[in-house]
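Q: Protein kinase domain-containing protein, please. Structure only.
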Amino acid sequence: MSLNNGLEAANMLEEMMKITAQNLVKMEVSQHYEIIKELGKGKYGHVTLVMHRQRGTPMALKLLPKESTKQQNFLYEYCVALVLSGHPNIIGMFGIAFESEEHYGFLYEAALQRDLISIIKPREGILEPAAKLCTKQLVNALEFIHHKGLVYRDVKPENILIFGRDCQNIKLTDFGLTRPRGTVLKLVSGIIPYTAPELSNTQNCEGVPIDFTLDAWALGVLLFCLMTGYFPWEKTVPSDPFFEDFIVWQKTGITEGLSYHWKKLTTEAMDMLSKLMSLNPSERSPVNKVLRYLDYPWRVANWRALEK
Ligand SMILES: Nc1ncnc2c1ncn2[C@@H]1O[C@H](COP(=O)(O)OP(=O)(O)OP(=O)(O)O)[C@@H](O)[C@H]1O
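A: Structure for Protein kinase domain-containing protein:
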Protein backbone atom coordinates (compact mmCIF):
# COMPACT_ATOMS: atom_id res chain seq x y z
CA MET A 1 0.00 0.00 0.00
CA SER A 2 1.57 3.31 -1.03
CA LEU A 3 1.78 6.44 1.08
CA ASN A 4 -0.32 8.13 -1.64
CA ASN A 5 -3.22 6.20 -0.27
CA GLY A 6 -2.84 8.10 3.02
CA LEU A 7 -2.57 11.38 1.11
CA GLU A 8 -5.75 10.67 -0.84
CA ALA A 9 -7.56 9.88 2.40
CA ALA A 10 -6.30 13.14 3.94
CA ASN A 11 -7.48 15.20 0.93
CA MET A 12 -10.89 13.61 0.87
CA LEU A 13 -11.37 14.12 4.61
CA GLU A 14 -10.37 17.77 4.35
CA GLU A 15 -12.98 18.37 1.67
CA MET A 16 -15.67 16.52 3.64
CA MET A 17 -14.87 18.52 6.75
CA LYS A 18 -15.27 21.83 4.89
CA ILE A 19 -18.62 20.80 3.47
CA THR A 20 -19.84 19.41 6.81
CA ALA A 21 -18.83 22.66 8.55
CA GLN A 22 -20.94 24.65 6.05
CA ASN A 23 -23.93 22.40 6.67
CA LEU A 24 -23.63 22.02 10.43
CA VAL A 25 -27.15 22.28 11.87
CA LYS A 26 -27.80 24.31 15.04
CA MET A 27 -30.15 22.56 17.47
CA GLU A 28 -30.70 21.63 21.10
CA VAL A 29 -30.83 17.86 21.73
CA SER A 30 -34.19 17.93 23.56
CA GLN A 31 -35.88 19.50 20.51
CA HIS A 32 -35.69 16.29 18.51
CA TYR A 33 -34.48 13.55 20.85
CA GLU A 34 -35.60 12.07 24.15
CA ILE A 35 -32.70 11.11 26.39
CA ILE A 36 -33.04 7.51 27.62
CA LYS A 37 -29.80 6.68 29.49
CA GLU A 38 -26.04 7.07 29.53
CA LEU A 39 -24.15 4.50 27.43
CA GLY A 40 -20.61 5.50 28.27
CA LYS A 41 -18.10 8.20 28.93
CA GLY A 42 -14.60 8.58 27.54
CA LYS A 43 -11.80 11.09 27.89
CA TYR A 44 -13.37 13.38 25.28
CA GLY A 45 -17.00 12.54 24.88
CA HIS A 46 -20.20 11.50 26.51
CA VAL A 47 -22.40 8.88 24.79
CA THR A 48 -26.13 8.67 25.52
CA LEU A 49 -28.94 6.47 24.28
CA VAL A 50 -31.62 8.74 22.80
CA MET A 51 -34.85 8.20 20.92
CA HIS A 52 -35.92 10.25 17.92
CA ARG A 53 -39.10 11.98 19.14
CA GLN A 54 -41.07 11.64 15.90
CA ARG A 55 -39.91 8.27 14.65
CA GLY A 56 -39.07 6.46 17.91
CA THR A 57 -35.70 5.33 16.51
CA PRO A 58 -33.14 4.46 19.20
CA MET A 59 -29.75 6.07 18.52
CA ALA A 60 -26.44 6.70 20.25
CA LEU A 61 -25.63 10.38 20.66
CA LYS A 62 -22.00 11.41 21.14
CA LEU A 63 -21.61 14.86 22.64
CA LEU A 64 -18.26 16.65 22.76
CA PRO A 65 -18.13 19.78 24.92
CA LYS A 66 -17.26 22.91 22.92
CA GLU A 67 -15.21 24.09 25.89
CA SER A 68 -12.65 21.30 25.39
CA THR A 69 -13.14 20.34 21.73
CA LYS A 70 -11.92 22.23 18.67
CA GLN A 71 -14.51 22.31 15.90
CA GLN A 72 -11.90 20.83 13.52
CA ASN A 73 -11.36 17.83 15.79
CA PHE A 74 -15.09 17.20 16.03
CA LEU A 75 -15.51 17.47 12.24
CA TYR A 76 -12.55 15.17 11.76
CA GLU A 77 -13.92 12.40 14.01
CA TYR A 78 -17.38 12.70 12.45
CA CYS A 79 -16.12 12.60 8.85
CA VAL A 80 -13.79 9.64 9.44
CA ALA A 81 -16.67 7.71 11.05
CA LEU A 82 -18.88 8.58 8.09
CA VAL A 83 -16.28 7.47 5.53
CA LEU A 84 -15.86 4.13 7.31
CA SER A 85 -19.48 3.40 8.21
CA GLY A 86 -21.32 0.85 6.11
CA HIS A 87 -18.82 -1.92 6.84
CA PRO A 88 -20.49 -4.71 8.87
CA ASN A 89 -17.85 -4.41 11.61
CA ILE A 90 -17.82 -0.62 11.87
CA ILE A 91 -20.47 1.38 13.66
CA GLY A 92 -23.22 2.76 11.39
CA MET A 93 -23.84 6.51 11.21
CA PHE A 94 -27.10 8.42 10.74
CA GLY A 95 -25.40 11.23 8.82
CA ILE A 96 -26.49 13.88 11.35
CA ALA A 97 -23.92 16.27 12.81
CA PHE A 98 -24.96 19.37 14.77
CA GLU A 99 -23.92 21.97 17.28
CA SER A 100 -25.85 23.11 20.34
CA GLU A 101 -25.07 25.99 22.67
CA GLU A 102 -22.50 23.90 24.58
CA HIS A 103 -21.72 20.82 22.48
CA TYR A 104 -20.89 19.38 19.14
CA GLY A 105 -22.74 16.13 18.50
CA PHE A 106 -23.48 13.34 16.07
CA LEU A 107 -25.86 10.38 15.97
CA TYR A 108 -24.98 6.77 15.31
CA GLU A 109 -25.99 3.18 15.92
CA ALA A 110 -26.51 2.22 19.58
CA ALA A 111 -25.06 -1.00 21.00
CA LEU A 112 -27.40 -2.08 23.74
CA GLN A 113 -25.10 -4.94 24.76
CA ARG A 114 -22.25 -2.59 25.60
CA ASP A 115 -18.58 -3.00 24.79
CA LEU A 116 -15.99 -5.78 24.91
CA ILE A 117 -14.44 -4.55 28.17
CA SER A 118 -17.73 -5.36 29.93
CA ILE A 119 -17.39 -9.09 29.14
CA ILE A 120 -13.65 -9.62 29.76
CA LYS A 121 -13.36 -11.48 33.06
CA PRO A 122 -10.38 -10.38 35.14
CA ARG A 123 -7.75 -13.19 35.35
CA GLU A 124 -9.66 -15.19 32.69
CA GLY A 125 -10.41 -13.18 29.60
CA ILE A 126 -13.22 -14.50 27.38
CA LEU A 127 -14.03 -17.93 25.97
CA GLU A 128 -11.75 -18.94 23.13
CA PRO A 129 -14.48 -19.32 20.44
CA ALA A 130 -15.73 -15.80 21.29
CA ALA A 131 -12.16 -14.43 21.18
CA LYS A 132 -11.69 -15.96 17.73
CA LEU A 133 -15.01 -14.58 16.48
CA CYS A 134 -13.97 -11.12 17.69
CA THR A 135 -10.57 -11.47 16.07
CA LYS A 136 -11.99 -12.37 12.67
CA GLN A 137 -14.33 -9.38 12.66
CA LEU A 138 -11.76 -6.99 14.04
CA VAL A 139 -9.29 -8.00 11.35
CA ASN A 140 -12.00 -7.36 8.73
CA ALA A 141 -12.63 -3.89 10.11
CA LEU A 142 -8.94 -3.00 10.40
CA GLU A 143 -8.16 -4.23 6.88
CA PHE A 144 -10.99 -2.07 5.55
CA ILE A 145 -9.66 0.97 7.44
CA HIS A 146 -6.13 0.29 6.14
CA HIS A 147 -7.43 -0.01 2.57
CA LYS A 148 -8.79 3.50 2.93
CA GLY A 149 -5.23 4.64 3.77
CA LEU A 150 -6.06 5.20 7.45
CA VAL A 151 -4.48 3.93 10.66
CA TYR A 152 -7.11 3.35 13.37
CA ARG A 153 -4.78 3.94 16.35
CA ASP A 154 -7.24 3.07 19.13
CA VAL A 155 -7.67 -0.70 19.26
CA LYS A 156 -8.88 -1.45 22.80
CA PRO A 157 -11.90 -3.34 24.18
CA GLU A 158 -13.71 -0.11 25.16
CA ASN A 159 -13.96 0.75 21.46
CA ILE A 160 -15.36 -2.60 20.35
CA LEU A 161 -19.13 -2.65 20.65
CA ILE A 162 -21.15 -5.85 20.96
CA PHE A 163 -24.24 -6.65 18.91
CA GLY A 164 -25.79 -10.11 19.09
CA ARG A 165 -24.87 -12.96 21.41
CA ASP A 166 -21.42 -14.41 22.09
CA CYS A 167 -19.63 -11.75 20.03
CA GLN A 168 -21.28 -12.88 16.82
CA ASN A 169 -21.35 -9.29 15.64
CA ILE A 170 -18.93 -6.70 16.93
CA LYS A 171 -18.32 -3.18 15.59
CA LEU A 172 -15.48 -0.71 15.98
CA THR A 173 -16.27 2.79 17.16
CA ASP A 174 -14.43 6.01 18.17
CA PHE A 175 -12.38 7.38 15.29
CA GLY A 176 -11.02 10.41 17.14
CA LEU A 177 -7.42 9.17 16.88
CA THR A 178 -7.60 7.71 13.34
CA ARG A 179 -5.13 9.38 10.97
CA PRO A 180 -3.98 8.95 7.37
CA ARG A 181 -0.98 6.67 7.02
CA GLY A 182 2.22 8.72 6.97
CA THR A 183 0.94 11.43 9.36
CA VAL A 184 3.90 12.42 11.52
CA LEU A 185 3.14 12.08 15.22
CA LYS A 186 5.29 14.26 17.42
CA LEU A 187 3.72 13.77 20.80
CA VAL A 188 1.97 10.75 22.17
CA SER A 189 -0.29 11.68 25.04
CA GLY A 190 -0.32 8.95 27.66
CA ILE A 191 1.46 5.67 27.01
CA ILE A 192 -0.89 2.74 27.55
CA PRO A 193 -0.27 -1.01 27.10
CA TYR A 194 -1.59 -0.75 23.52
CA THR A 195 0.96 1.93 22.51
CA ALA A 196 3.57 0.48 20.15
CA PRO A 197 7.12 0.89 21.53
CA GLU A 198 8.28 3.12 18.65
CA LEU A 199 5.73 5.69 19.90
CA SER A 200 6.64 5.39 23.58
CA ASN A 201 9.91 7.17 23.07
CA THR A 202 9.21 10.15 20.84
CA GLN A 203 10.06 13.02 23.22
CA ASN A 204 13.41 13.86 21.70
CA CYS A 205 12.92 12.86 18.09
CA GLU A 206 11.49 14.51 14.99
CA GLY A 207 8.31 12.48 15.15
CA VAL A 208 7.21 9.14 13.73
CA PRO A 209 5.23 8.73 10.48
CA ILE A 210 2.42 6.44 11.47
CA ASP A 211 1.77 3.14 9.75
CA PHE A 212 -0.66 0.21 9.84
CA THR A 213 1.85 -1.64 12.02
CA LEU A 214 0.60 0.41 15.02
CA ASP A 215 -2.75 -1.36 14.75
CA ALA A 216 -1.04 -4.76 14.46
CA TRP A 217 0.77 -4.10 17.76
CA ALA A 218 -2.42 -3.04 19.53
CA LEU A 219 -4.26 -6.08 18.15
CA GLY A 220 -1.55 -8.30 19.68
CA VAL A 221 -2.03 -6.67 23.09
CA LEU A 222 -5.82 -6.98 22.81
CA LEU A 223 -5.59 -10.71 21.96
CA PHE A 224 -3.34 -11.26 24.98
CA CYS A 225 -5.96 -9.53 27.18
CA LEU A 226 -8.80 -11.58 25.68
CA MET A 227 -6.94 -14.84 26.28
CA THR A 228 -5.60 -14.16 29.78
CA GLY A 229 -7.66 -11.39 31.40
CA TYR A 230 -4.41 -9.47 32.07
CA PHE A 231 -2.48 -6.76 30.30
CA PRO A 232 0.94 -8.06 29.23
CA TRP A 233 2.59 -4.90 30.71
CA GLU A 234 1.63 -1.48 31.92
CA LYS A 235 3.77 0.56 29.54
CA THR A 236 5.90 -0.27 26.53
CA VAL A 237 9.03 1.25 28.03
CA PRO A 238 12.15 -0.71 29.08
CA SER A 239 11.67 0.38 32.71
CA ASP A 240 8.50 -1.74 32.84
CA PRO A 241 9.79 -5.16 34.04
CA PHE A 242 7.10 -7.12 32.17
CA PHE A 243 7.92 -5.30 28.94
CA GLU A 244 11.62 -5.85 29.57
CA ASP A 245 11.03 -9.62 29.84
CA PHE A 246 9.06 -9.47 26.59
CA ILE A 247 12.01 -7.69 24.89
CA VAL A 248 14.32 -10.50 26.05
CA TRP A 249 11.95 -13.10 24.59
CA GLN A 250 11.65 -11.24 21.29
CA LYS A 251 15.42 -10.83 20.99
CA THR A 252 16.61 -14.24 22.22
CA GLY A 253 13.62 -16.58 22.06
CA ILE A 254 14.10 -17.35 25.79
CA THR A 255 10.69 -17.64 27.45
CA GLU A 256 11.83 -18.24 31.06
CA GLY A 257 11.48 -14.62 32.13
CA LEU A 258 7.94 -14.19 30.83
CA SER A 259 5.13 -13.97 33.39
CA TYR A 260 3.07 -17.12 33.97
CA HIS A 261 0.16 -15.71 31.92
CA TRP A 262 2.15 -16.35 28.76
CA LYS A 263 2.37 -20.04 29.77
CA LYS A 264 -1.40 -20.28 29.30
CA LEU A 265 -0.88 -19.80 25.56
CA THR A 266 -0.07 -22.47 22.98
CA THR A 267 3.08 -22.34 20.83
CA GLU A 268 0.93 -21.21 17.89
CA ALA A 269 -0.69 -18.38 19.86
CA MET A 270 2.77 -17.29 21.11
CA ASP A 271 4.04 -17.32 17.52
CA MET A 272 1.07 -15.21 16.39
CA LEU A 273 1.65 -12.66 19.16
CA SER A 274 5.41 -12.49 18.65
CA LYS A 275 4.83 -11.64 14.97
CA LEU A 276 2.08 -9.08 15.60
CA MET A 277 4.24 -7.47 18.27
CA SER A 278 7.62 -7.54 16.59
CA LEU A 279 9.76 -4.85 18.19
CA ASN A 280 10.83 -3.71 14.74
CA PRO A 281 7.69 -2.31 13.05
CA SER A 282 8.93 -3.26 9.58
CA GLU A 283 8.99 -6.93 10.65
CA ARG A 284 5.50 -6.90 12.17
CA SER A 285 2.84 -9.12 10.54
CA PRO A 286 -0.06 -7.34 8.88
CA VAL A 287 -3.27 -7.84 10.85
CA ASN A 288 -4.72 -10.38 8.40
CA LYS A 289 -1.91 -12.89 9.15
CA VAL A 290 -3.78 -13.62 12.38
CA LEU A 291 -6.43 -15.44 10.36
CA ARG A 292 -3.94 -18.26 9.71
CA TYR A 293 -3.95 -19.09 13.41
CA LEU A 294 -7.72 -19.37 13.86
CA ASP A 295 -7.72 -23.16 13.34
CA TYR A 296 -5.17 -23.80 16.12
CA PRO A 297 -5.97 -23.79 19.83
CA TRP A 298 -4.79 -20.58 21.51
CA ARG A 299 -4.92 -21.70 25.13
CA VAL A 300 -3.15 -24.77 26.53
CA ALA A 301 -5.49 -27.45 27.87
CA ASN A 302 -4.73 -26.85 31.58
CA TRP A 303 -4.63 -23.04 31.41
CA ARG A 304 -7.01 -22.56 34.35
CA ALA A 305 -4.69 -24.57 36.62
CA LEU A 306 -1.89 -22.11 35.88
CA GLU A 307 -3.80 -19.24 37.52
CA LYS A 308 -2.32 -18.79 40.99
N1 LIG B 1 -22.83 3.41 19.91
C1 LIG B 1 -22.61 3.07 21.17
N2 LIG B 1 -23.42 2.20 21.80
C2 LIG B 1 -23.19 1.82 23.08
N3 LIG B 1 -22.17 2.29 23.83
C3 LIG B 1 -21.32 3.16 23.26
C4 LIG B 1 -21.49 3.60 21.91
N4 LIG B 1 -20.48 4.44 21.60
C5 LIG B 1 -19.73 4.53 22.71
N5 LIG B 1 -20.22 3.78 23.71
C6 LIG B 1 -19.64 3.63 25.06
O1 LIG B 1 -19.15 4.89 25.47
C7 LIG B 1 -17.74 4.81 25.76
C8 LIG B 1 -17.07 6.11 25.34
O2 LIG B 1 -17.27 6.33 23.95
P1 LIG B 1 -16.10 6.83 23.01
O3 LIG B 1 -14.98 5.85 23.06
O4 LIG B 1 -16.65 7.13 21.68
O5 LIG B 1 -15.69 8.19 23.76
P2 LIG B 1 -14.28 8.93 23.82
O6 LIG B 1 -14.39 10.07 24.75
O7 LIG B 1 -13.84 9.24 22.43
O8 LIG B 1 -13.38 7.77 24.44
P3 LIG B 1 -11.80 7.72 24.64
O9 LIG B 1 -11.53 8.13 26.05
O10 LIG B 1 -11.50 6.25 24.40
O11 LIG B 1 -11.20 8.58 23.59
C9 LIG B 1 -17.26 3.58 25.00
O12 LIG B 1 -16.13 3.00 25.63
C10 LIG B 1 -18.47 2.65 25.05
O13 LIG B 1 -18.49 1.93 26.28
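A: Brief note, in case it's useful. Residues 39-45, 47, 60, 62, 91, 108-111, 115, 158-159, 161, 173-174, 176 surround adenosine-5'-triphosphate (CB under 6 Å).
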